[in-house]
Amino acid sequence: MTERLGFIRSTSDECLFYKQDERGNDIWVAVFVDDLIIASPNEDTIKNFKDDMRKQFSMKDLGELKEVLGITITRDRTKGTITLAQERYILQVLTRFNITPTDRRKHSLPMSPHTIDKLSLADCPQTTEDREEADLFPYREVVGSLMYLMVSTRPDIAFAVGQLAKFMSNWGLRHIQAAKDLLLYLNGTTTVGITYGNGPQTLSCFVDANWSYNPDNGRSTTGYVFFLFGGPISWRSKEQETVALSSTEAEYMALSYASQEAIHLRMLLPFMHVDVSMPTIIYEDNQSALYLANNPLHKERTKHINIRYHFVRERIQSFEIVVEKVDTKFNVADLFTKPVDNTTFYRLLDTLLGNKD
């Protein structure tokens, strides 16, 4: 396609192509195997591209994009918003694991917020009988099905799925119960999705860390989420690779991970004509981590930190990112680092999914 039709390929995403037609109209094409998503502000440009493709390939035109890869696209032309959701996929998953549409069981949260309920290796089967009982539940299939949902349209379950995934090779009854709770949460939120169009056209990020969350190895959890046009476009909940010796260190390492993703997005978005000329704001709620990132001085307590985590300092000095303080109660990334109570979860959920006007 690049050679025959004059498209150029994005260096940040090899499945994304762009060109200007002879009249100067922009057109983008995203490719997934044999499916194409075509975008252009000019309908004639799209039509001409389809005509060119038909001359070389046998194609089926499905018209305006309404569903792709199990994701449903809904437009509200009055409000100028677009919503991505996976209700049909969720219902298929629930039915597969014996939760029917008429099932009244619900769970208000993706995961229990109680500290004593941390999932651990200690919850893995200790006897042959325990192992045989746990094997009756299709744990791997449940978690695998939810992973696709989590990376596509449901950032609200990212932390829970990440915790469950740690035990894919050895799960016990408490892990199974947590997986069932997550399915019941989805049973009550089948129509939830991400909405774009309610916010600024500038890239921003929230980042957080939960120090020493893992009871088995003492490692902390990093969480970040990037917003554009009011909705999340990139998010992650991930256990850190090394043990942090303090909450400041854990937050600083999380800032480094978020900075790496920021640079990737700042390379990708100009390809789609999104302005990133101003530094990307990363919101952090730990004052000590902010000071450490903005003041690159040698300190006795931080000299042991791996040099790779000082990446954030370089990007601040090059004016690609700016790290600013945010009140903890407004830090949406909190949802990616630990299970929270109902009040906190639902206070942040609308912001996370782009539903806050």
Description of the structure:
- There is one protein chain.
- The chain has three domains: 2-65, no CATH class; 85-187, no CATH class; 198-332, Ribonuclease H-like superfamily/Ribonuclease H (Nucleotidyltransferase, domain 5, 2-Layer Sandwich).
- It has a five-stranded mixed sheet with strand order 11-10-9-12-13. It has a four-stranded antiparallel sheet with strand order 1-2-3-4, with no helix packed on it. A four-stranded antiparallel sheet has the order 5-6-7-8.
- A hairpin with a 5-residue loop joins β2 and β3.
- α5 (139-152) packs antiparallel against α6 and α8 (247-268) crosses α9.
- The model has no long low-confidence stretch (mean pLDDT 90).
- It has helices at 2-5, 43-54, 87-96, 128-134, 139-152, 158-165, 173-187, 247-268, 287-294, 311-317, 342-352; strands spanning 8-9, 16-20, 26-32, 35-39, 67-68, 71-76, 81-85, 193-196, 204-210, 221-228, 231-239, 280-284, 321-325.
- The chain is α+β, with helices and mostly antiparallel strands and 357 residues long.
- The chain is built from eleven helices and 13 strands.
Overall geometric form: globular
Counting DSSP H or I runs of 4 or more residues, the number of helices is: 11
Instruction: Please give the alpha-carbon distance between the first and last residues.
Output: 40 Å
The H-and-E topology, N to C, reads as HEEEEHEEEHHHHHEEEEHEHHEH
Largest sheet: 5 strands, mixed
If classified by CATH, what would the architecture of the largest domain be?
Answer: 2-Layer Sandwich
Would you state the CATH class of the largest domain? Alpha Beta
